[in-house]
Amino acid sequence: MIGALVNLLRGAHVGFVLAREGALALADPTDMPPHLRLALRLGRMLERPGLGAGAARLSTALTRLGPSYVKFGQFLATRPDIVGMSAALDLEKLQDRVPPFPQGTAIRVVEAAFGKSIRELFVSFSEPVAAASIAQVHEAVVMDPDGTQRQLAVKVMRPGVRERFQRDLQVMRFMAGVVHALSPQAERLRPREVVEILARSVTMEMDFRLEAAAASELAQNTADDADFRVPRPEWELTARDVLSAEWIDGTRLHSRDEIVAAGHDPQAVGRSVIQSFLRQAIRDGFFHADMHQGNLFVDAQGRLVAVDFGIMGRLGAKERRFLAEILLGFIMRDYRRVAQVHFDAGYVPAHHSVEDFAQAIRAIGEPIHQRRADEISMAKVLTLLFDITALFDMSTRTELVMLQKTMVVVEGVARSLDPRLDMWTTAEPVVRTWITRNLGPVGRIESGAEALRTIADVVADVPDLALRLKRVLVRLDEAGTGDAHRLERFARNERRWAVWQTLALWAIAIGALVMAFR
C-alpha cells in the first residue's frame, strides 16, 4: 500500500512536469472517453505561458524529469506509432549527456570489476572523453604480451544508476497500468508491453557483457561486408560494469564537408549506410537500431564503422520475408502483393478485404513513384502507413515499428550525405539478392528440409505430449468446483483494481493542480 502511494506521488510529479512543459498538447483528445478528455483539459491549464509550438515540448519535459526519462524518450523515438512521427523525430535529438563523474570514481569501478589496480590493467587511463546517463567513456592504452601498445575505449558504469532506473521504471509501470485500464484505445498500442520492453532494454544496457556480445554477433554477421565493420570487444577487460573495445579513429557522419575533407565520397558512404542496415535486417535478422550520426564513423579505408550496441533489433524469418516482400512490392509497384503479404503474415485481421488494403497501400506507393528521389520522405511514407494500420485494425508489432523507425533515421543520415539519394534504388540490390537466395529454388529446398526436421521432432515428442495432457486432465478433474471459486475471486479482484486505477488517475491530476498553485 505504501509502495502504491509512493508511485502515485511520483506519478503526479511526472504528470505535473509533462503538463507544465506543454507535452500534453501532443495528445489527441478525439477518441478519448469523456473522463480522459476532462483530465487532459485540466492538465492543459497548467502549461507555462510563452511555450513554443511543436514536439520539442516533450523532449524538454523528459529532460527535466531526469536520465531515466531521457532514456525512455530515446526509446519512444523508436515508437512513432505511439507518440507520432513528428514527436519521434524530435525525441531522436534528445541529448543523453550529463556531467561526468570523477575519474577516481571510475577507477574504483574498474578496479572492483577486475580485482586489479588500474596500473596492472592499463598503461594509461584518461579523464572521461564522453558522459551519458548510464556510463561514461575513457581512452586507455593496453600493452600486449609482445610489447605492442593498443588504444581502447573503456566504458564505465555510472555508480547508483541501476537503483535509479529501477525506481523510475516502477512509476512508469504504474502509469502504463492506469492508461491501459482507462483507455480502451490504448490496447492496440500496448502501453504496459512498451514499458516492459524498455525495462528489458535498459537491463541489457546495464550489463556491458551483453553489449559486448551484441557487438561480437554483429561483427560475425558482417565479417565479409567490404564497406562495414564493428570494433572488436576486448573480452578480458569487459565485465558487467566495464566494457573495453577497439578505439576508433575515424570521421563522424555529422558533417558532409568533413567527410569530403577526409578524402571520402559522401554518396558512397550514404549508400553504405542504407545497404549495411538492410543487410543486417533482411539477411541477418539482427540490426543496429540506433544508427544516428553520433554512432557512425568512416575509417581511413572508407568503411562505415558503428559503435554503441545498447539498442539492437531482431527479426524472425517471417518478419524478414515480410520486410523483403514489402520493399520489393513497393519497388515493383505491385500493391496487391504488398497487401497479400500482410494478410499471409496475419498482421491484418481476416475480416478485411485484400483488395481494399491494396487500394490503401496504393495511396502510399503511387505518390512515391511520381516524384524525384530527393522529394520522397520515408518519414511521410511511414506516417501514412501508421494511419492505414489503425484503419485496418493492425496490432502494433514492436519489432517492425523499431525497424521502421530505424529506417527513417538511416534515411536521414544517408540523405544528409547525398540529398538526391534514391532510397528505393539503393535498397533494391539487397532486397533482390535476399529474395533470389531465400525464395528461389535453393531457399525452397532448404525450407523443405527444415520443415521435415520440424515434423520429425514433433512426431518424436508425441508420446511425451500425450502423457503431459493426461496429467493435466487428471488435475483438472481433481480440482472440481474449486477453480470456479478461484475464477470468481479473480474477477472481483480485477474489478477492484480497475476502480483503484480510476481513482489513481484523478489523484495524479489533482496532485498536479495542487503542485501548480502552491
How would you describe the overall organization of this protein?
- This protein is α+β, with helices and mostly antiparallel strands and 518 residues long.
- Among the domains are: 2-96 and 165-202, no CATH class; 250-439, no CATH class.
- It has helices at 2-20, 34-44, 56-65, 67-76, 80-83, 85-91, 103-114, 118-121, 161-182, 191-205, 208-221, 256-261, 266-284, 317-332, 335-344, 354-369, 378-391, 398-417, 423-439, 441-479, 482-516; strands at 124-131, 135-143, 149-157, 228-229, 242-246, 251-252, 286-288, 296-298, 304-306, 312-314.
- The strands form three sheets. The protein has a four-stranded antiparallel beta sheet with strand order 1-2-3-5. A four-stranded mixed beta sheet has the order 4-9-8-6, covered by helices on one side.
- Helix 3 packs antiparallel against helix 4 and helix 9 packs across helix 21.
- The protein is globular, with a radius of gyration of 26 Å.
- The mean pLDDT is 78.
- This is ABC1 atypical kinase-like domain-containing protein.
- Pathway: Cofactor biosynthesis; ubiquinone biosynthesis [regulation].
- Pfam families: ABC1 (PF03109).
- Belongs to the protein kinase superfamily. ADCK protein kinase family.
- The chain crosses the membrane at residues 497-517.
